[in-house]
Amino acid sequence: MMAAAAAADVSKNNEVMLLEKNEKLGKKLFITGKGRCNLTNACDESDFLNSVISNPKFLYSAFYGFTNKAVMDFFEGRGLALKVERGERVFPASDHSSDVIRTLERDLKEKHVDVRLNTGISGVSISDEGTACGVITDRGERLKADRVILALGGVSYPGCGATDDGFRIASELGIETRAAEASLVPLTVMEEWCTRLQGLSLKNVAVRLEAGNRKPVYSGFGEMLFTHFGVSGPLILSASSYLKEDMYKKEPVLHIDLKPAINEKQLDERILRDFSETMNKQFGNSLGRLLPAKLIPVITELSGIDPKKKVNEVTREEREGLVSLLKDLRLTITGNRGFNEAIITRGGVRVKEINPSTMESKRIKHLYFAGEMIDVDALTGGFNLQIAWSTGRLAGESAGTAGDE
Questions:
Q1: 200 and 326 housed in the same domain
Q2: What value does the mean pLDDT take over residues 77-87?
């Protein structure tokens, strides 16, 4: 949608056609941000690129040509009120992703873009000169075009119509791609006790993810969620961005610091204070001020301390063990929940195949790429949609300007 609008915007002489395989526009956009659409992040421009995991340098031209601030101006200038929440995440003030889609639809209509729904593509037509000259629809219809922009998305959320069409079509054209992997995805764990914490959300915790060789892969602070299969939530989704497929075989370990605001000595003193005020209580009933109720039985069990033991009988060694556990609760990662639950797809058309200043294919002239089908991905928080807006805008402007020459 952004690419089509940009192509129509750069010249009134351009005739722009947008082909959408679904029955309506923005089907995946509709479910982003739990239906609220976290459409960008209001962080400093330099911080934005630090949040891009794969190939951030490739995005320089696209991002600085259409920054996060420019995206906010784009939507606000078209009547969509925005708000900024924790973590600089930007949402429509209405909390309805449908308002974002409607804003884009109005823009397309005003620019006279020919939108054709229920029309997917199966391939790109190549001229005798080796340039892109149109597309072949999934019904076998051949549509001619001076320029072609492929923005077919990733593989995540197949229920929204996502497929590997973009990867397949690029490969058939001889364009090198990197295999698709699930990213920003919940993680599965080995430990059975984790299932007993299903539904428990922890805020203000710190996590550290280590690969099999104990090499730190990711560290962060924020919120996480226990599920029936393992762990999820913003911290975990971000951590998953750093886990490549081959790392899962090495059983990476997630270290959770339940009390990151204080060190071990301070935590021990805090526990001693709690114990002194509950001298005659059993250990299993003494952690109510320190931990959420659902977590207490699990921590009690993992500590190895008899839950019926009086707190004034808990030894120094046992207390130190409890402190270590609270500062380093460990989970063994066994895998992830796959494309059905992954927010984005890692992989796609390799950036060496694309001119970063125009988004045009280096191999096939008049063919452009945008969005998730390019091998760029970022942390959760609106960064991936910003990549879509920036690359879409640049691809549309480049194709639209070239088509007017």
A1: yes
A2: 96
